[in-house]
Design goal:
Number of helices: 13
Number of domains: 2
Radius of gyration: 23 Å
Number of strands: 19
CATH class of the largest domain: Alpha Beta
Helix content: 25-40%
Length: 462
């Protein structure tokens, strides 16, 4: 008779109190980080034991306040609350040590996310605060969103250092041709997907699927549904992991919205709405229906009414709009909606409890917290104003000339955003002014630059 096998020891949870993680996983490094305006982790690296002693002694942690006001290159602002005129003072970080996370893609390292605090309260311009406000206002209406995010990005051969050494030219995608749904990816791409799934799973961030996309070297990653803010944090950590794993394999993961060669990469937000008991509010039949409820129609109408004026939250850079410049690219150019229609800005998909709104406007370069805040603000506007949606589009939305166009440039988007009474009402005037200033910094950067394309066209012909 075969001896009974001992019960397997359950794996240690990768999320929990910091001291427990440090002990269970023999960690020596802790990253204390906030999420900046660009959706990146920014902060400081600490010795695990030293940080525990410092926190136990009641010491505070600070970062330079300019982290909320720089452009993508970390250039300080010329004006505003985080600028040369402010003196660049420190902002206190309030670390959430009870929700520390193991980062398996870095050796012996945990992450502690921290809130930025202003006068004892969450900083009003921090992306986490902007999103939390929209969630709180929706909750007052009895609406609880669930969110899943899918993102496209491009893998290139060589590391970032290699790309910089070449002057950012001669970028070679890690796979050739249209690899949409392909299951015979080149070895490095296949190994990237395997390692990415492994490290994210070990961090308690399981990936739903990794697939090849329609352009050379392009990959799409989707995540399961979850709590709205957690879905956004998961996405920030996923990007950090993807870049680290790619670098370890001699690759570069690019989350530009428009890559060389005309490759557009999007970040699609899948949003479902539920009541306090978890019943779908979007579906007319919450059990298995595919038709929108009256509230679902209001939500769609609010999205279409608001998103065109909120461009800097879901398309923050000059490059972002080049993804939206071409018809039939699977990036929307018209503010229209339809049932399971990928030519629309808002695609209604699923049924019953899973009926959801896929917001296809954001690019892969967007900060998920701000992009989702924009979408939820629009949904809330539609519900409170009881807006009626236009007819659903069953055909090609790209040729629907009577539907409003999406902004075609960052300059247009900033102008619409600053002039929008709706943006000020839904987001707050300080947030609008601040995000408009950050977007203007990207415009100012590009205005003075002579691009390779200008030289190619103008050197001999002008």
């Amino acid at each position: 008779m075969r001896a009974a096998r001992p019960a397997a020891t359950p794996p240690t949870r990768p999320v929990g109190p910091l001291e427990q993680l440090v002990t269970d996983f023999d960690l020596d490094t802790v990253l204390v980080a906030m999420i900046d305006q660009q959706g990146r982790l920014k902060g400081k690296e600490y010795d695990a034991a030293g940080l525990a002693e410092r926190l136990a002694a009641g010491s505070s942690l600070e970062v330079c306040g300019y982290l909320l006001g720089t452009d993508v290159d970390m250039t300080p602002a010329a004006r505003g609350p985080f600028s040369w005129t402010s003196g660049f003072g420190d902002v206190e970080m309030l670390p959430g040590t009870e929700r520390a996370r193991l980062l398996p893609w870095l050796p012996a390292t945990a992450l502690v996310l921290a809130d930025l605090v202003s006068y004892g309260a969450p900083h009003p311009l921090a992306p986490t605060t902007v999103l939390e406000r929209q969630l709180r206002l929706l909750a007052r209406l009895g609406v609880v969103p669930q969110v899943g995010i899918e993102t496209e990005f491009v893998l290139y051969e060589g590391t970032l250092r290699d790309a910089e050494a070449s002057g950012w030219r001669r970028l070679r995608p890690a796979a050739c041709g249209n690899r949409d749904y392909a299951l015979d990816a080149p070895g490095p791409v296949r190994e990237f997907g395997r390692r990415l799934r492994q490290v994210l799973g070990a961090a308690g961030l399981p990936v739903e699927a990794v697939k090849g996309e329609g352009a050379p070297g392009q990959v799409e990653v989707t995540f399961p549904y979850g709590v709205a803010e957690e879905a956004c944090i998961q996405h920030v950590l996923f990007k950090h992991a993807a870049k680290t794993v790619a670098d370890g394999l001699g690759l570069t993961a690019s989350f530009m919205a428009a890559n060389p060669g005309g490759v557009g990469s999007g970040m699609h937000l899948h949003v479902s709405l539920h009541d306090g008991d978890g019943r779908s509010l979007l579906a007319a039949d919450p059990e298995r229906g595919t038709e929108l409820s009256e509230l679902g129609g209001w939500a769609v109408a609010g999205l279409l009414a608001a998103m065109g004026e909120f461009g800097p939250l879901w398309a923050p850079y000059v490059n972002s709009y080049k993804r939206l410049a071409t018809d039939h690219s699977f990036a929307p150019t018209r503010l229209a909606w339809g049932r399971d229609n990928r030519t629309c800005a808002v695609r209604v998909v699923g049924h019953g409890p899973s009926l959801r709104l896929e917001v296809r406007l954001p690019g892969a370069d967007a900060n998920p917290l701000l992009a989702l805040a924009a979408a939820l603000a629009g949904i809330r506007h539609g519900i409170t104003a009881r807006l009626e949606p236009p007819p659903a589009v069953s055909g090609d939305a790209y040729v629907l000339l009577d539907a409003p166009p999406v902004p075609c440039s960052l300059q247009e988007a900033v102008g619409l955003f600053e002039a929008s009474a709706l943006a000020g009402e839904l987001l707050g005037e300080p947030v609008v002014r601040h995000l408009a200033r950050v977007a203007q910094m990207d415009l100012d950067h590009h205005a003075a630059r002579v691009t390779d394309a200008e030289v190619e066209r103008g050197l001999a012909q002008a």
